[in-house]
Amino acid sequence: MSMKPLEFDRRYGELEQVISAYIGLQADDEPDKPSEALQAYLRHTWHARPWALASAEQQIREYARNPPGRLRLSLGEFYAVPDVGLPESAIRDWLFVVADHLKRSIEQGEVPPPSTPRTHWEWHARFPELGQLLGGWFSQDMPDEFPDHDAAVDDYSSTTDPQLVARLMGELHELLALALEESDYALAVADLGMEVDPPRQFSPSGWLAHLADSLGGAAKADYGPGSAAD
Questions:
Q1: pTM (2 decimals)?
Q2: What is the pLDDT of residue 176?
């Protein structure tokens, strides 16, 4: 019988977050050098959820000490580590290396400086609501579903909780504050799920700024007469 969500999260929730950071990347951690994937996890988690690092170290080390057998994996009683490009015989040693890096980072206070996201996982971990908008409303099917970009944004804002729309606005301003090159903004929105080009009159950053302004104007328009917004 598969584990219930609460039990899974207690035992493997943060382990799964770490492993997710390796999707599409190499698990090439060395004892003296964390992989690009682990560096991305450390960089984001230190600044967003620093308390989770200790849970990750504990869960990974415990899993490596007591790896599940095939039967228990088939019954859903243990977390099955996805394919990270390593032979099965090397997984256990690799997990110990990862746990050691996490432990050293915590004990020595090695906090990575803020930085532009460098991996697919890190982009989505840092800008989750923007990824939701771009991946859900601006896929390659967008021209068949909406007459233009503004219509897609209107649909998003009218069907999404206002608190999530506000979160999106914050993410847009944070992304624009990175002051990237236009080519890097194009790569960023593609990494976050956008499969169509911005409207012709906008550069990628220009459209993100227009999007932030549009959503901000819509939020102000929701205030009634005599409200605090007046």
A1: 0.87
A2: 97
